[in-house]
Amino acid sequence: xxxxxxxxxxxxxxxxxxxxxxxxxxxxxxxxxxxxxxxxxxxxxxxxxxxxxxxxxxxxxxxxxxxxxxxxxxxxxxxxxxxxxxxxxxxxxxxxxxxxxxxxxxxxxxxxxxxxxxxxxxxxxxxxxxxxxx
Length: 134
What we know:
Layout: E1 3-4, E2 7-13, E3 21-22, H1 34-46, E4 50-65, E5 71-83, E6 97-104, H2 105-108, H3 116-127
Antiparallel strand pairs: 1-2, 2-3, 2-6, 4-5
């Protein structure tokens, strides 16, 4: 999660298999650490080079469905990151991102977020409360 003041960056994925806004992120590749995956995925999906500031929470009580109807339990590691350069969400496109933007807590209330896990991470962030066991 990257913030600019009291706003956080979220993105709309190009593929609509997850309709709604999401945090940048993705899978860890073989031989890659969680931090290496975070930096790579964040750049691929936003064009922003980041450095990790701190671990915020680990989320493990959520599931995901695949197009073939398989279900899996999802483990998400949420970090606070900062940008190595100035941030611009204008005109950014990639093969994964349709739209990228910063939103504050009030704005987020009126936007479709992809799933309960992402909603919980947003609420935890704005409340500055990261409960163990989610």
